[in-house]
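Ticket 4471: requesting a sanity check on a complex prediction with magnesium ion. Repro inputs:
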Amino acid sequence: MSDCIKGVLFDLDQTLLNRDESLIRFLSWQYSALSLSAEGISEHAYQKEFINEDKNGSVWKDKVYSKLISVFNIEGYSQDFLLRQYIERFRDHCVEVNGASKLINKLRHAALPMGIVTNGKSPFQEKNIESLGWNNDFKVILVSENVGLRKPSTEIFLLACQGLGVSPSQTLFVGDNPKSDIMGAKDAGLQTFFLKTKYHNHCDGADFTGTDLNLVSQVIFGFDSTTN
Ligand SMILES: [Mg+2]
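Returned structure tokens:
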């Protein structure tokens, strides 16, 4: 095991939580629950419009639903009702990024303290983590809305390291966003692993780069540990 990594922090969306797949599952459920087919709306068009307006999670859903109501002429449901469904039911459709649980289990067995640092709404993000069965695995869970700090601010990374009880230089941050995750963590003095996705496939300055979480395990435990 690497001598210089004593703790690991993760981003949530698209790093541990497969947000694309989770969103498709939620939207499919919502489309059926609202019986939108009876209003002549196609499921594909509903999903496509949501995903387009959502901009990879960067736009809050009040705006997204307001647009959907006007585009599809939805008359039976208010923006607040649709938003509440998203807040309360998204968690039921959460799926992990391939290999996330396997990596978390491995880190837990190695007694490496872990945390999550995510920009997002609270308690929405905490509920999503809970639904994946991970809330007891993480010593620290910092959600930007809850702590009043956002990545890439160095303060939120330092606060997370403090919570782990590990110095920044001995902490590895794993995330998919070059600016908020990698640049922020780097500025705070952490080691960084950039997880490539279809949204961001290049990042200058990351200490490690890879397309799947198995490589994080290799960075921490060595390259002979891929089958474990
Ligand atoms: Mg992310």
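Notes from triage: The mean pLDDT is 95. Leaving this open until the requester confirms.
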